[in-house]
Amino acid sequence: MNNISVLYSEEELALSVKKLGAEITEEYKGKKLLVVCVLKGAFVFTADLVRSIDNDMQIAFITAKSYVGTSSTGNVSISGDHDFMGLDLREWDVLLVEDILDTGRTLCELKKKFASMGAPSVKIAVMLDKPSRRVADITPDFKCYEIEDRFVVGCGLDYDERYRNLPFIGIISE
Ligand code: 5GP
Ligand code: MG
Ligand code: MG
Fold first, then answer.
1. How far is the CA of 99 from the centre of ligand 3 (A)?
2. Which is catalytic among the residues 88, 102, 137, 141?
3. High-pLDDT (> 90) share of the chain, %
4. Which of 7, 99, 129, 143 to mutate to test the pocket of ligand 1 (most atoms within 8 A of CB)?
5. 11-149 maps to which CATH number?
6. Pseudo-torsion of CA 26, 30, 32, 38, nearest 10°?
7. What is the pTM of this model?
8. pLDDT per residue over 89-134, tens digit each?
9. What letter does residue 141 receive in the DSSP assignment?
10. Cα-trace Rg, the chain
11. Where are the domains of the chain?
């Protein structure tokens, strides 16, 4: 097992998620909220966040994978529940929940997809924001922490599919 140092502990993250949940609760008062969890990475954050949001909501899941080829253009493939439980997206304010906003390609594609289905608003909540690596023109509406250009694991974030279960956000040091 690699040596992993703690960047944000389980306790501090829990406090930050609670605060974010309260903000989101205010934002969506009286609205029809559809939370969309972007798999796989966001499964832990989504589970924590939705339990901190005190609004009526529905929850959907979508899988996104970003492939970056030899050229500098990224390619994002989206799969999963495409009919969103048969909901008419024109009636639902969508909150995309992601583990980390990095180049922004994934969330940019997803935002376009939901906007094209007629959602009155499409916003973004992330656990972490890494603005220094941004390629797409996108910023999170709700975030727990902004971080430097470091590769992080834990709370859903993987390194070759490992470490998603760590209860804290960590940095691998060889
Ligand atoms: P992007 O914003 O570049 O389209 O892609 C974001 C995705 O890249 C995230 O959902 C995540 O899966 C992965 N990613 C970006 N930065 C990190 C990181 O520091 N650690 C881990 N484990 N995954 C990352
Ligand atoms: Mg992800
Ligand atoms: Mg990954």
1. 10
2. 102
3. 84
4. 99
5. 3.40.50.2020
6. 0
7. 0.94
8. 999 999 999 999 999 999 999 999 999 999 999 999 999 999 999 9
9. S
10. 16
11. 11-149
